[in-house]
Design goal:
74 residues; alpha+beta; 2 helices; elongated
Length: 74
């Protein structure tokens, strides 16, 4: 059997931009970290929207599309 080794490269540390008082005002992230954070944010938003709709009345898609089509024709 052959051995397979997996190496993971260390994630680059964020770089901070500071103002003249030394306060952090911006951050520079590597693109991979940025994408990961955006996915997390989108998932949280999706979960929030799902939570908001729990218990609300639902309608069949065909009915909604038919009503929308009627509105456009008027």
């Amino acid at each position: 059997m052959s051995e397979t080794t997996t190496t993971t490269r260390p994630r680059p540390r964020p770089k901070f931009i500071t103002n003249e008082k030394g306060r952090r005002t911006a951050v520079i992230l590597d693109f991979e970290t940025y994408q990961r954070l955006m996915r997390i944010q989108e998932d949280k938003l999706d979960n929030h929207l799902i939570d908001e709709t729990i218990g609300q009345e639902t309608y069949p898609l065909e009915e909604v599309l038919r009503e929308e089509d009627l509105r456009r024709k008027c």
